[in-house]
Write a structure and sequence with these properties.
Structural class: alpha+beta
Shape: globular
Order of helices and strands: HHHEEEHHEEEEEEEEEH
Mean pLDDT: 79
Distance between the termini: 61 Å
Strand content: 35-45%
Number of strands: 12
Length: 305
């Protein structure tokens, strides 16, 4: 989770850094800067990224996560497919089958009933949910603080234009800004990351980001380490007019914690985005779904007395 928390802002908001890097670079003249500087474009990208982030609190989705023990593992990956529903205090995951439908109807219904109870407490402003709301608000603040810290973490250099379907993407090289000073264990990773980003300039959207850890990174008061060569990437597409969301992400991390090694080799496919709304609307949708499931239950034969 720490790895994803540290790399997610790069994957989601990396282009937001470019405006500041172009306008306020304090590195020597010999250091490459973003070219050409397009602050208006990057202001649009910032706004669009925030729009996409906010959408995750009102859109449910299907996630297919494929996990392997190591990058060279050719065996069948462990696969976990879930319906991910925003819950007002995070996300509620319900296991589903390959077709996105329940494998076990009873277990599926039980999960939805748990979610409905949680949403009910939230909508009714129950005191029992205040801690969860505060923790979720803190997670958002921590994420925003981390994003703010990235404003001067990277420099971007335009490389080329590349086609993707009917669109044309602008490819930029992403390198650490030597003037950036990390102020937390998460931001300490940024100076050791290099990669590339692809932008759809017509829409002002980040379409793809890919990066590598160029040096070993110590984490957790030097009790752990992320090894050089660890890799991450994310792709984003337009799911609805004006709304771009992640379609795929991949994390390949190797390292050690204390005296044992660890590996995170995970591919996630995102699909079936569907608006479900904030907690009050989501609760109504879940209750309706539960009601429809009740009507669909097979009924035994009844004889009038």
């Amino acid at each position: 989770m720490m790895l994803k928390r540290a790399f997610a802002p790069i994957a989601v908001l990396s282009l937001a850094l470019a405006a500041d890097a172009a306008a306020q670079s304090v590195v020597p003249d010999t250091t490459p800067a973003i070219g050409p500087a397009k602050p208006d474009l990057f202001n649009r990208i910032i706004a669009n990224q925030k729009k996409g982030e906010a959408a995750l609190d009102v859109y449910e989705r299907i996630e297919r996560v494929e996990t392997r023990k190591n990058s060279g593992d050719t065996s069948t990956p462990m696969i976990r497919i879930t319906r991910v529903i925003p819950s007002g205090t995070g996300f509620f995951r319900v296991p589903v089958g390959d077709d996105g439908k329940p494998k076990d109807s009873a277990a599926y219904r039980a999960d939805l009933e748990v979610l409905a109870r949680s949403l009910t407490l939230l909508v009714e402003d129950s005191a029992s949910q205040r801690d969860a709301l505060e923790k979720y608000a803190k997670k958002k603040k921590d994420r925003n603080d981390l994003i703010d810290a990235t404003h001067n973490a990277f420099l971007f250099t335009f490389l080329a234009s590349e086609p993707r379907g009917e669109r044309t993407l602008s490819k930029y090289k992403m390198e650490p800004n030597p003037a950036f000073k990390p102020n937390s264990r998460f931001t300490s990773i940024f100076p050791k990351v290099r990669g590339f980003v692809w932008v759809d300039e017509a829409s002002g959207e980040l379409a793809r980001v890919e990066g590598d850890v160029a040096e070993d990174v110590f984490v957790g008061l030097f009790l752990g380490k992320i090894y050089k060569g660890s890799h991450f990437m994310q792709e984003r597409y337009e799911y609805l007019p004006g709304l771009w969301l992640a379609s795929f992400s991949q994390y390949d991390f190797d390292g050690r914690k204390l005296f044992s090694s660890f590996s995170v080799h995970e591919r996630t496919f995102y699909s079936n985005y569907r608006y479900i709304g904030p907690p009050k609307e989501a609760l109504a949708a879940i209750r309706q779904e539960l009601g429809n499931a009740e009507l669909d239950k097979p009924r035994g034969n009844h004889t009038d007395p």
